[in-house]
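**User:**
My hope is that you can spare some time for a protein that puzzles me. This is the protein in question:
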Amino acid sequence: MKTPKNVYLDHNASAPLCVEAINAMQPWLTGPVSNPSSVHRSGQRSRAAVEQARGQVAKLLGCQPSAVVFTSGGTEANNMAIWGGLGWPPHGHLVVSAIEHPAVMEPAVALRDLGVEVTFVPADNQAVVSLEAVQAAIRPNAGLVSIMAANNEVGSLQPIEKIATIAHDSGALFHTDAVQAAPWTDLRPLTTASDLLSLSSHKIAGPMGIGALYIRPGLDLPPFVRGGGQQGGRRGGTEATALIVGFGAACARTRAMRDESGVRVAGLRDRLETTLLDSIEGARRNGSESRLPNTCHMSFAHCDGNVLVARLDLDGVSASAGAACASGVAKTSPVIDALSLPAKYSAGSLRLSLGYETTESDVVRAIHAIPHAVHAVRESGLEVTR
């Protein structure tokens, strides 16, 4: 008997590498190696491929290719924006939300520990940052405001364009971590509103280890990584041609598929969510109604989320109890804290995130597997110590 394929519902952690990226990368993985900074013919061939990919990223963002700086991923892009946005040495007031990804939160904490004035703006119980809260947080010496476009755990969308206006009216730069929004949201309005915007390749089915930072033309951002002066002196280090080419191909695919896939996936997500709410006693949905079309975040009373994820894995369903970067951390995330869940729900979170390739049969299998897994975990009485 043929074993059914695994149902992958963890796209917010990483989207499987798409065939378009694989095909684009193949010649650069198996062909002659060349440095894009070399002046010989082979090097210039690599340079042309890098610049073509830069153009593909720029089209996704709706900007000029010269505004795109390649990084090692979303984490570096966020660090580059946070540290560079305050100048060097860092100065001025930094404002970030309290539900940011660790790639923003940890640089903010490090700057605070160095003596920089940092304010963490709270989110409401739907994981949304209000305009009033941002306005109240900004001080006269504000240098940078950084608010994520879409929350990676519950999918809530933030009012980025309006927050950016508040930041600019105060004289501050504005940065948004658009890593999670990129597969599902038209980034062009966000790019127009922002001074800095971060992307990660593997969230849009490109290769891991590559990302980008949009830098508004005319903004002189100090380099975060110093070296040989690559990318106009904005980020040192030899460009990874194969990864960059794969990233570009994934961006082109996203532009072609995003709108149609978003509508289809939202329908599958809603079916999954509604059925689970109806079939599991003590189930609740978390986050805002205004959210990513692929993300379903639920809590189950008296059911440990980490144990539930392990049980689902045995049943062939890959999901998450929260952000993948926090797996194994024995405490609730700031996002879960913001939701202000009743105590019986606080440990039982499950994030189900669909992708472009998620099928109806995948959802049907999940609909059958999850209620049984919740029941089994509750019956076992297993808990993760917190």
